[in-house]
């Protein structure tokens, strides 16, 4: 039910997640932020079991903070991805966390953004663009077609909206509302909260 | 009776000799001062003189425990490392469970509790460390706490630990005024250390903790400036006399 999309652009990482939190047929919350900041320049986008997501993200955030206080320096995105994967991998055969994640981060040292795909089984892969949840079924082809590594911010935002529009169009469960965040050298910022309206509705209006 | 079961036992006149020996170890450590102003906290430490070939940057006595709490210590450096590590872990653990940042008194009590545990356990010795902990409480007031090897802790307006404890405390008692601003608090801290530190301002570290701001270490040049101003004032006073 969760839809998370992310990709790396030129000097930034753009991530979006739907803002629904539900249980079976009921929508419990329509302003649920699934893009959790781990530190000043990293976001963990969570999908799956809500309770597991909360607990797991809390665990990662606290351990990343502890590292920062102990060593007076921040971890790189790669290190956080590896650490997170390790936590998921050791948990899977003991007390699994049902969370699938997208980790996006900007490293000041390399002046580059990076994105990692992590799932509840303990797999991890560095990707340029990707998605979790049902969105993955629909946006993969769009991103394959239109993504390139030199996307500047405006083009990136347009591409993201294209992806989210497709999710809204094709997913039978109405997700409608998405939150888009960006990470760049200045840190994390909320770009937009978009309400996507399906094109079909416009067609019906025109006929009348 | 076998006296080797626990290391800390009562003496016939009701003292814990090991704890008092630990306090002696603290008195051998380099001086650390903490002063509370109206809206600022300043920590000052006497740095141990480093050998010629030693990298001075690796000897840091003022450490951050959490984003809003700092501490310094006097005594056995290696022992302090253990306490600092435990405190740092406890801060994150608290935030993990309660989502709120930890309170200054809470973490002080935790450190003091840890120190006390080691005075009443089998096969361990007390920590040879006294600590000064600074931070802002939930209401936004600056707080300075001190712990010692016995596990006692208390809140102070200004305090000193380490080898020059007596003369510096006397100096602070004479010159401390309530509700000082940042400039006055920094000057008082530097002045109290300069009196007792043999090697002068190069071996002093000053850290300023402001509300909701990261800790700031005062630069070498600024400390040197202030010390120079004291010396000139001193000269002037001597000339007048």
UniProtKB/TrEMBL annotation, chain A:
It is found in: Cytoplasm; Nucleus. InterPro entries: Ntn_hydrolases_N, Proteasome_alpha, Proteasome_beta2, Proteasome_bsu_CS, Proteasome_sua/b, Proteasome_suB-type. Pfam families: Proteasome. GO terms for cellular component: proteasome complex. It comes from the Eukaryota. Its main location: cytoplasm. The keyword Protein transport does not apply. This is Proteasome subunit beta. Component of the proteasome, a multicatalytic proteinase complex which is characterized by its ability to cleave peptides with Arg, Phe, Tyr, Leu, and Glu adjacent to the leaving group at neutral or slightly basic pH. The proteasome has an ATP-dependent proteolytic activity. Component of the proteasome complex. It comes from Anaeramoeba flamelloides. PANTHER family: PROTEASOME SUBUNIT ALPHA/BETA. Belongs to the peptidase T1B family. Keywords: Cytoplasm, Nucleus, Proteasome. The keyword Ligase does not apply.
TrEMBL record, chain B:
Residues 3-25 form the Proteasome alpha-type subunits domain. It is found in: Cytoplasm; Nucleus. InterPro entries: Ntn_hydrolases_N, Proteasome_alpha, Proteasome_alpha-type, Proteasome_asu_N, Proteasome_sua/b. GO terms for cellular component: proteasome complex. The keyword Nucleus applies. The 26S proteasome consists of a 20S proteasome core and two 19S regulatory subunits. PANTHER family: PROTEASOME SUBUNIT ALPHA/BETA. Belongs to the peptidase T1A family. This is Proteasome subunit alpha type.
């Amino acid at each position: 039910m969760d839809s998370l999309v992310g990709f790396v652009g030129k000097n930034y990482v753009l991530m979006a997640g739907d803002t629904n939190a539900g249980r079976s047929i009921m929508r419990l919350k329509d302003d649920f932020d699934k893009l959790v900041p781990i530190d000043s320049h990293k976001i963990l986008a969570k999908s799956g079991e809500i309770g597991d997501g909360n607990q797991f993200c809390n665990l990662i955030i606290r351990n990343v903070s502890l590292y920062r206080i102990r060593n007076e320096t921040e971890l790189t995105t790669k290190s956080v991805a590896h650490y997170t994967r390790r936590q998921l991998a050791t948990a899977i055969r003991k007390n699994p966390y049902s969370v699938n994640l997208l980790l996006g981060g900007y490293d000041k040292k390399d002046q580059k953004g990076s994105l990692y795909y992590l799932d509840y089984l303990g797999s991890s892969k560095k990707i340029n663009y990707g998605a979790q949840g049902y969105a993955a079924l629909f946006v993969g082809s769009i991103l394959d077609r239109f993504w390139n590594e030199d996307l500047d911010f405006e083009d990136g935002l347009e591409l993201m909206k294209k992806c989210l529009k497709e999710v809204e169009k094709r997913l039978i469960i109405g997700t409608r509302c998405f939150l888009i965040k960006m990470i760049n050298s200045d840190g994390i910022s909320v770009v937009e909260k978009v309400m996507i309206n399906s094109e079909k509705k416009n067609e019906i209006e025109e006929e009348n | 009776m076998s006296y080797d079961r626990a290391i800390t036992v009562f003496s016939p006149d009701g003292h814990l000799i090991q704890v008092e020996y630990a306090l002696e170890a603290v008195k051998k450590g380099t001086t650390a001062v903490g002063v509370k102003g109206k809206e600022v906290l300043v920590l000052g430490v006497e740095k141990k003189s480093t050998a010629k070939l030693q990298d001075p940057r690796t000897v840091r006595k003022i450490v951050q425990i959490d984003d809003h709490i700092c501490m310094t210590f006097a005594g056995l450096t290696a022992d302090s490392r253990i306490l600092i590590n435990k405190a740092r872990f406890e801060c994150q653990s608290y935030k993990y469970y309660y989502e709120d940042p930890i309170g200054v008194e809470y973490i002080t009590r935790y450190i003091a509790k840890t120190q006390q545990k080691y005075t009443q356990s089998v096969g361990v010795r007390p920590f040879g460390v006294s600590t000064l902990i600074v931070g802002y409480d939930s209401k936004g007031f600056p707080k300075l706490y001190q712990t010692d090897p016995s596990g006692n802790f208390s809140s102070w307006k200004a305090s000193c630990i380490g080898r020059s404890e007596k003369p510096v405390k006397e100096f602070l008692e004479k010159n401390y005024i309530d509700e000082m601003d940042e400039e006055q608090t920094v000057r008082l801290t530097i002045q109290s250390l300069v009196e007792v530190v043999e090697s002068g301002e190069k071996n002093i570290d000053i850290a300023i903790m402001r509300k909701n701001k990261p800790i700031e270490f005062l630069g070498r040049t600024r400390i040197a400036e202030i010390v120079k101003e004291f010396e000139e004032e001193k000269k002037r006073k001597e000339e007048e006399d």
